[in-house]
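Reminder to self: tokens first, then the designed residues, so the page reads top to bottom the way the pipeline ran.
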């Protein structure tokens, strides 16, 4: 049931659509989250979960489309012309298909444990709940369950979604709201830029005894990695690096022919990120010199991830509306946590106002003992509902331009 009531959100019309309080909303969201979480969806293997999401939306009465990447699209038609609102949640997880997906309830602490439950089964559940709760908006609203947000997915799902929705008209999308299961008190409106590289080393290799002295790919990579750890990025703007994966060799008594590492670079500032990247290339270049070539060593450096930066200011109407909505739900906004790498990076990098919000609180993200708090879920979905309605009104009024 939909009601009409006054709103305290900035820039709203005197009255606007809002949701009624339903006593079973929390349990509904929990049940949906568990159903989604029980379908394995490693990055790059989201097809089964995508089909489940598509079928659910079809049962709600939507005409649903899936693209070649397994992004899921459903549109709630607006009552008037105007740029569309995109509400999205990523379907992929960091876990392999073999991970234990057992759910553990901690009733005394109002918590629910399960791998991938908060990141991002709860976010997808909130998206589906929203699609089933909204009846009408002044502008089109696209519900997008997208792939490829985690790891080396490189935000390919959101890239493809925005490419598709703006293909015929670049201004067809006026704003985006990205959903994550955790981080209810956060309003992320600054996109943390990152660049990721795979450094690969080949060498002649051989037997550890009879060919001792022959160049080893593992030994060369270990030296290169040690040089990388001497990097000293600036503390402000905050800039970081991490060697997340290092692998190579075939056995303990084999001089390795192949070895590789994966390097993650991040910064609040694109210029600082570019400077750090130049230092990395300089280190790699030393191992591509004639000296190493003569020893039969070859080193390559391949870009495997490029998450662009972007932002809207602290006083942007969408940011202020999100903060006001949280306060309306008696949630204290964490105003110091406004930068992160999320699917919102893509619209922000293209000049489209976007924020990423959470549905509840939780912890241990990307761990098998990940958990979500169940008590704040009702507040989280009310926050989502009010913010989506406000944003649609804002787009319809033309105040986005």
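Designed residues (401 positions):
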């Amino acid at each position: 049931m939909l009601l009409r009531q006054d709103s305290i959100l900035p820039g709203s019309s005197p009255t606007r659509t809002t949701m009624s309080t339903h006593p079973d909303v929390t349990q509904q969201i929990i049940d949906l989250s568990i159903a989604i979480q029980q379908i394995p969806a490693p990055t790059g293997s989201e097809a089964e979960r995508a089909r489940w999401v598509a079928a659910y939306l079809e049962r709600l009465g939507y005409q649903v489309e899936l693209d070649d990447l397994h992004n899921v699209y459903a549109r709630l038609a607006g009552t008037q012309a105007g740029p569309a609102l995109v509400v999205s949640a990523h379907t992929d997880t960091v876990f392999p298909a073999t991970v234990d997906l057992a759910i553990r309830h901690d009733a005394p602490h109002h918590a629910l444990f399960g791998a991938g439950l908060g990141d991002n089964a709860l976010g997808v559940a909130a998206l589906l709940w929203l699609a089933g709760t909204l009846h009408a908006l002044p502008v089109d609203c696209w519900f997008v369950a997208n792939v490829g947000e985690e790891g080396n997915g490189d935000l390919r799902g959101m890239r493809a979604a925005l490419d598709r929705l703006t293909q015929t008209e670049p201004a067809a999308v006026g704003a985006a709201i990205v959903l994550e299961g955790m981080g209810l008190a956060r309003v992320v409106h600054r996109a943390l830029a990152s660049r990721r590289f795979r450094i690969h080393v080949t060498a002649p290799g051989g037997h550890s005894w009879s060919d001792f002295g022959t160049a080893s790919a593992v030994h060369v990579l270990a030296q290169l990695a040690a040089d990388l750890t001497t990097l000293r990025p600036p503390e402000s703007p905050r800039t970081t690096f991490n060697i997340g994966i290092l692998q190579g060799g075939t056995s303990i008594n084999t001089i390795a022919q192949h070895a590789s590492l994966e390097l993650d670079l991040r910064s609040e500032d694109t210029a600082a990120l570019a400077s750090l990247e130049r230092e990395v290339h300089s280190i790699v270049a030393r191992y591509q010199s004639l000296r190493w070539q003569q020893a039969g060593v070859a080193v390559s450096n391949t870009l495997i991830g490029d998450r662009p930066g972007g932002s809207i200011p602290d006083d942007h109407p969408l940011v202020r509306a999100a903060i006001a909505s949280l306060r309306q739900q008696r949630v204290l906004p964490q105003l110091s946590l406004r930068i992160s790498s999320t699917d919102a990076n893509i619209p922000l990098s293209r000049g489209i106002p976007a924020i990423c919000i959470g549905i509840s609180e939780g912890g241990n993200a990307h761990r098998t003992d990940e958990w979500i708090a169940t008590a704040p879920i009702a507040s989280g979905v009310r926050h989502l509902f009010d913010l989506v309605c406000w944003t649609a009104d804002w787009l319809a009024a033309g105040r986005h331009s």
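The chain has two domains: 2-191+309-396, 193-307.
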